[in-house]
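Build the 3D complex.
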Amino acid sequence: MSLTAKDKDTVKAFWAKIAGKADDIGTDALSRMLVVYPQTKTYFSHWKDLSPGSAPVRKHGQTVMGGVADAVKKIDDLSAGLLSLSELHAFTLRVDPANFKILSHNILVVLATMFPTDFTPEVHVSVDKFLAALSRALSEKYR
Amino acid sequence: MVEWTDFERATIADIFSKMKYEVVGPAALSRCLVVYPWTQRYFGNFGNLYNAAAIMGNPMVAKHGTTILHGLDRAVKNMDNIKSEYAELSVLHSEKLHVDPDNFRLLSDCLTIVVAGSLGKEFNGDVQAAFQKFLAVVVNSLGRQYH
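Done.
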């Protein structure tokens, strides 16, 4: 299920529309993830405040969406482009890759709430495929 | 037995009391057929599913989407016994329709996204958690009688 040319165009066009709200998207997606999938909180025991919209959540949401923005730019070769991020997640963070799916789902939910008319089924499928490809690239160095 | 908080019961009742079945049902099923195209395998006799526009405009898809969504009503009315409510339907989906139960999860993800789109900010993290928990119980019950 690799990205077609149409998928890449769709993702880039949609990203252009939503990039301005990237920080809000990141904050909301992360906040939701911590509430709806409490097991994900185990990765953030070092944060003082895990409540929705808290300072550490907002800061980390920015970091994550920065990574997504970078991935959009490198959409033509995600494995090469995300190599160092993959090493970070594999050797330092050691986030179970199942969680990439969970965060991706929450990003999709946020996109639906924030952009109901733009997030059509066609955009949805391309973005879903993109996030899956991103997750795969992030998992590259795990083993 | 599934334990429901007062908040979860109220949230589910609220969402479904305001539900526009003929809008949300078709939107959820057609989105599922577009986003996860392999789900089309179960709808060979639905006519033109050739592209997203055809799927979104297909009257058989719309009608079936509404039917499926109304199928959730029995769970809404009897949240304490969802497993027994869907025992027969589970057997039907397994023995007669031969539906891979993973598809129930795919459809429920699409339903979550459609409801999120229609409720907007109101669909906050706590509401999402309640809704997804409810759907997870339904999905589990529908897969329960497979063997």
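The CA atoms of residues 101 and 136 of chain B lie 12 Å apart.
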